[in-house]
Amino acid sequence: MRVDFHTHIIPEHIPNFVEKFGGERWPTLEKTCSCGANIMVAGNVFREVTDQVWSPEKRIKDMDAEGVDIQVLSPIPVTFSYWAESEAAEEMSKIQNDFIAETVKQYPKRFIGLGTVPLQDVHVAIKEMERCIHTLGLKGIEIGTNINGKNLDDPAFLPFFEMAEKWEVPLFIHPWETVGRERMPRHNLMYTVGMPSETALAAASLINGGIMEKFPRLKVCFAHGGGSFPYILPRLDQGWKVWPHLRQTSQPPSYYAKNFYFDSLNYDPLNLTYLIERFGYEKIIMGSDYPFLLREINPGKVIDDTSELPAEQRQAIYGKNALAFLNIEIKEEIIK
């Protein structure tokens, strides 16, 4: 069984929040044809998309063609809208969460849903997280790597992580508003360099800021194989060692990093093997970034190409690990 943990979806019809609330940063979807559209931000094309991004029927057709049994649906990060007033951002979150929940309800054997919350207001974010998990039946929450420039170890977010741990809500952390983006206007370096660096900063912040020590049962998965984080972890350990006056944790970063999960989207068997050796195969989850250009085709290709993987580990990474991360009971009739 193949579970594609990292896929994005957006409603076909989003209200025009620019007209309703003002401001230019709201994303809108402008159709270019019956099977295509542009995601527009501030009057500019943010991303060209096809009906893959809103049509569950199209997604299922692709899944069948590419050997994927289940997709885990999450919002597109541009819709996080952390910059907006919390009331407006809450409405945007609810539209997305309701759409994802309805899609899962329509095709319960093919989709699992993750929600989003307006983390610029932690009280509202906790309220919407509760609705996502306990009312809509979503299985986790996707959040960004920073909130309006605040790293995830900012004290303001402690109540959110506390409740996520208490309610056993898995968190999928996806890069957005990347560090250094003002230096990356060319070559799409924001996607190829900025996002991996931003992810590393988020992971390091959760560890060095003591979040993972305070909440040891918190479940966290990082997109894109954790970006550059796995490869700078020894440097983080060295920093912890030589600057004891900066420590906010009782153990070095690698002690806490063993609790992290990572999707498999790093394209190269050498990188996947490194992830497995450092963190264990149980912490690696298949993910493709469907339906965007940088996605892996077919989903799980890097796992397929890692020829030395034992069958048990391969099957776990294909699907079992994702279900375990999402607290979904694994039944034999499902995985056959």
TrEMBL record:
Signal sequence coordinates? none
- Any GO MF annotation of the entry: aminocarboxymuconate-semialdehyde decarboxylase activity
EC number(s) per entry: 4.1.1.45
What Gene3D superfamilies does UniProt report for this protein, alphabetically?
Answer: Metal-dependent hydrolases (3.20.20.140)
Q: Would you tell me the Gene Ontology cellular component terms?
A: cytosol
Residue ranges of domain Amidohydrolase-related in the record: 3-327
The protein's annotated pathway: Secondary metabolite metabolism; quinolate metabolism
| Top-rank EC class of the record's enzyme | lyase
- Give the matching InterPro entries: ACMSD, Amidohydro-rel, Metal_Hydrolase
Q: Which GO terms describe its biological process?
A: secondary metabolic process
Q: Which UniProt keywords apply?
A: Decarboxylase, Hydrolase, Lyase, Metal-binding, Zinc
Pfam families given in the database record: Amidohydro_2
Family label: Belongs to the metallo-dependent hydrolases superfamily. ACMSD family.
Note the subunit structure: Monomer.
Protein name (Swiss-Prot/TrEMBL): 2-amino-3-carboxymuconate-6-semialdehyde decarboxylase
Q: Species name for this entry?
A: Cytobacillus praedii
